[in-house]
């Protein structure tokens, strides 16, 4: 089925939008309840979504924006690899940026949904979770010093983690422990038990299986033809909403061309030129002028760029619609080759997903005159122990990862919010009770950082936070962050710049 032809019933349109979103929400609750890692169970660093038979995003719950836009790339990549060979009981696993991934700790589990009668694929369910350690040169698999992808842990282009209903533990251990340890200076996954448990929860039991059950329930209620028709109606509704947004943006700006530029701490520019066609309600978003691929890990895969852009479009819409593939239809995103937004096959990318993506969001929102920049960074803290012994053999250990909150930018009629996770990192921070019970640390301070928002002008930008941790035994600690060395967060309309971070 290539699309819907009949005009949608507005009541059924709203009903199906909420039914589809409720599938993703139920998947997320199931994943949280069945996982054991702090990162997924407490920090909620995961996303679940529903995809059309062609791999386009249909609906999602409001999880992690940077996951949701890029997961469609991952689903479509696997579809090209397997074609029509997938069968019931197959579950796919991937995390490679080359195959639609964001960065290596984000592992995607994809399950096809088959029609009960025709046995054809009618949907895909997928979940993506950030796993605290998947190997690499440092515990936490987010090394600030990585210069290639091999130093960041296990890379999996495609792995059938469940084949015909049989969980492939041997293959999982090979991918997660043995292969990354072959690279000089790197270790395999330091806590395969937790990672295996979370992946088994996602791929064998829940949440994807829960999503399949709920999809079949909707099909039973309305019939496959009606369900797929409204899947396309929802996508078309999102498309028209974005087209109207673009027309309004051009009118407010008094110009069909919008431009903005910002910089990473090393001076690499991220530049955008937005050309809006008011008649069609479409736009070209051209990142020409963005800096070249960097030697470090601030390179952002193309799928991450699309995630950041689709998030901005959805955030600027004053409508209650699901984020889905329709939001991208009016957009022609152009990314220069060999730039840090289109990195080479082996480039390091762990920081691009969590730092550069925030800067892309800032630049897009700046071009549309939507709001001032937020913290511009996710402040990635990792610590842990384990790795390799003197003979080079991997030894068991553990890793912990969290993103530290900051302030959100103010808009024309509203204040920014203090001490929150902004934009692409819609996660929680580790609760003190969980943190101190599960890890050898003491949390001494966690509070707002006075006057870090940049001044007392109205509207006011949100302020950042102070987080002070004492480590009770020797371990490796690292932080991957921006806005802490050279550049402060920028503002528009005469607002003061935010304070630089400090570690």
Automatic annotation (TrEMBL):
Q: What region holds the Hydantoinase B/oxoprolinase domain?
A: 9-502
Q: Which residues form a coiled coil?
A: none
Gene Ontology CC? cytosol
Query: Do you know which InterPro entries this protein is assigned to?
Result: Hydantoinase_B, Oxoprolinase-like
Question: Pfam families in the record, alphabetically?
Answer: Hydantoinase_B
Gene Ontology molecular-function annotations: 5-oxoprolinase (ATP-hydrolyzing) activity
Annotated GO biological processes are:
glutathione metabolic process
Protein known as: Hydantoinase B/oxoprolinase domain-containing protein
Q: Which organism is it from?
A: Agrocybe chaxingu
User: Lineage from the top down?
Assistant: Eukaryota, Fungi, Dikarya, Basidiomycota, Agaricomycotina
């Amino acid at each position: 089925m290539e699309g819907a032809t009949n005009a949608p019933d507005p009541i059924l349109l709203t009903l199906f939008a909420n039914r589809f979103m409720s599938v993703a929400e139920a998947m997320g609750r199931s994943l949280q309840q069945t996982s054991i890692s702090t990162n997924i169970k407490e920090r909620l660093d995961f996303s679940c979504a529903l995809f059309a038979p062609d791999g386009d995003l249909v609906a999602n719950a409001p999880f992690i924006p940077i996951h949701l836009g890029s997961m469609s790339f991952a689903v479509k990549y696997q579809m090209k690899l397997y074609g029509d060979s997938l069968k019931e009981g197959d579950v796919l696993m991937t995390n490679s940026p080359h195959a639609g991934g964001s960065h290596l700790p984000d592992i995607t589990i994809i399950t096809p949904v088959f029609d009960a009668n025709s046995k054809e694929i009618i949907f895909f369910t997928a979940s993506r979770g950030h796993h605290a350690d998947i190997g690499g040169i440092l515990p936490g698999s987010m090394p600030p010093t990585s210069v290639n992808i091999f130093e960041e842990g296990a890379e999996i282009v495609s792995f059938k983690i469940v084949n015909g209903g049989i969980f492939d533990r041997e293959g999982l251990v090979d991918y997660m422990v043995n292969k990354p340890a072959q690279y000089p200076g790197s270790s395999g996954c330091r806590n395969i038990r937790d990672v295996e448990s979370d992946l088994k929860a996602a791929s064998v039991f829940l949440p994807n299986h829960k999503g399949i059950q709920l999809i079949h329930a909707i099909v039973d209620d309305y019939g496959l033809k009606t369900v797929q028709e409204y899947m396309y109606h929802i996508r078309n509704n999102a498309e028209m909403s974005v087209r109207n947004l673009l027309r309004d943006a051009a009118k407010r700006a008094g110009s069909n061309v919008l431009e903005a530029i910002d910089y990473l701490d090393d001076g690499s520019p991220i530049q955008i030129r937005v050309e809006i066609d008011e008649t069609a309600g479409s736009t070209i978003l051209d990142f020409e002028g963005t800096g070249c691929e960097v030697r470090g890990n601030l390179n952002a895969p193309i799928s991450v760029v699309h995630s950041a852009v689709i998030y901005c479009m959805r955030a600027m819409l004053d409508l209650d619609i699901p984020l889905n593939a329709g939001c991208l239809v009016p957009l022609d995103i152009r990314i220069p080759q060999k730039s840090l937004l289109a990195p080479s096959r082996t480039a390091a990318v762990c920081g691009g997903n969590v730092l550069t993506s925030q800067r892309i969001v800032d630049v897009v929102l700046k071009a549309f005159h939507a709001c001032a920049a937020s913290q511009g960074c996710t402040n990635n803290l990792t610590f842990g122990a384990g790795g390799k012994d003197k003979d080079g053999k991997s030894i068991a250990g553990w890793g912990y990862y969290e993103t530290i909150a900051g302030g959100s930018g103010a808009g024309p009629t509203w204040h920014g919010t203090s001490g929150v996770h902004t934009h692409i990192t819609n996660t929680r921070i580790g609760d003190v009770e969980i943190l101190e019970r599960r890890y050898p640390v003491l949390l001494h301070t966690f509070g707002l950082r006075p006057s870090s928002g940049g001044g007392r002008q109205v509207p006011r930008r949100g302020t950042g936070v102070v987080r002070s941790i004492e480590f009770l035994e020797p371990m490796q600690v690292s932080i991957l962050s921006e806005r802490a060395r050279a550049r402060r967060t920028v503002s528009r309309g005469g607002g003061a710049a935010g304070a630089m971070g400090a570690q």
